[in-house]
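pipeline: protein-struct stage 2 | run 1193 | (wild Malaysian banana) hypothetical protein
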Amino acid sequence: MGLATKLLRHHRRLLLRPLSSPYPLFAPPEYHSHTPSLLCSDHSSITFNPGRRPDNSFRSFSWFAWNPASDNGRDGGGETREDGNFGSSESGSEFSPLGGSPTGVEPSIMGLDGPGMVEEVTGESVWSYPMRAVISLLDGFHDFSGLPWWVIISTSTLALRLSLLPMLIVQLRKAQEIALFFPKLPPPFPPPLSGRSFREQYKLFQKKRRELGCPTYLWNFAFFTVQVPCFLLWMTSIRRMCLDNHPGFDTGGMLWFQNLTDFPSGTLGFVFPILISGLHYVNVQISFRTIRSRNLRGILGLLTKYYKVYLDIMAIPLLFIGFHIPQGSLVYWVTNSSLTLFQLLALKNSFIRMKLGLRDEKVPLREQVSSEKVLPENNIHLTEISVDTLSPQKLLDIALEDLAAGRHNEAIPLLEMAIEKDPELVRALIAKGQILCSQGSLVEAAKYFENAISKIQDEEDPFLLIATFGAGVSHLWQGNKLEGIKHLKRIAELKEPESPANKSCYHQGLVILGSTLFEEGKKSEAAKYLRIAATYDPGVSVYLKECEEAG
């Protein structure tokens, strides 16, 4: 059996000897004789050190099939010679499949030898294949067009952003649908003192959302989840080309950035870092301009506020990071940020939004065209006026209409804009306080009511009664009874209004005051205020009698 194996090996060497030339193309004989042996198959290769025994784990990489059994107990198919070369022919030349190729190019010349090959095979990441695809795509575009590399990088960035535009439009349309259903949906998180757990509240939210047919809130992150991986892929691919001194990158720039593989330096080296930092800051301000006017309260509003602060601060480290990025990558980054700025500005244009099927960011107003302001319904014209151009009083009127219709989320941003334009607008302060009080934001509501009180000089102003009542109730519901009683006592000092609605508010405040004083043990004082309220509502007499008997 051992003799047969040796004859078989000798026969293989005779057959394979013509396939390996001692003088392969592009490599001198002396360099070749000291090259470690390389055994590879049609689709893989591995490097063996001289004198190293072939392990079982490398059988699939051998040039010929290994014989598991041999006379000396080692794997068959090759022998270790005294010179330390494994599987070599008698002439000392390697035998490898590349040796018999028409060109005779050695693996060492093709970059397949040594530890580099092993590192490349074992160290590939999930980004390696997409990066190769992007680099091949950019190479093909460059070879086809013959344009400079900085133009290739810029135009490919534009093509990438255009390919992502449909996803952005779909997300904006879904966000519009969510905004329409938002006032009808319960909050996804349990309100304070509601007694509900997060799980119960979220189930209620999901049930109502499905009933109304509202899209999932995850649509708000659709474009982000696609854009960020694409941005990182393009960025890392171009960075790899810069670090590898890709052919043509050393002269592929223009003006002050001729060499795309260099880092920013020299007199104009600060241009790219400043552009990156400045564009980032401007894009953040424009993006959050519309979010500021929305009703983002509670934990969501707090997180949004801190996230914006974080993005604002990031402009500073980006300035310094820009000095440590190759100029080829900076060309891509500046182009991408510039396209983002253009996209944000374009999506605020009424004509472009109409063409994309998006709702215009303007408020429809019903403007009556008549000197008497009394016309049939069919003569009322619908016009669209930008919110920024409206007067504070007009903004307040629209907000009150929304408030009467129960659209609190639409009324709040209008009230905020009206207060910002005219801080002395008492009705807007009171309306904002009423909404916040109904939503459970009692501390903020009390501030708005007290701010309105401080701006009212006339004691007979009917809004003074409403603001005082709101401030007193807001403090009582917080548990701050001293401040609440103080405000409600002021109601008794005001003149009883003549308007039925205001008169009801006046006596209701006295009833709440009397009830609070009774709980505090001040029964005689409570009876005094309940006696005044009983003249308006005889039903209070029952409580008055109970208070007098207890006193």
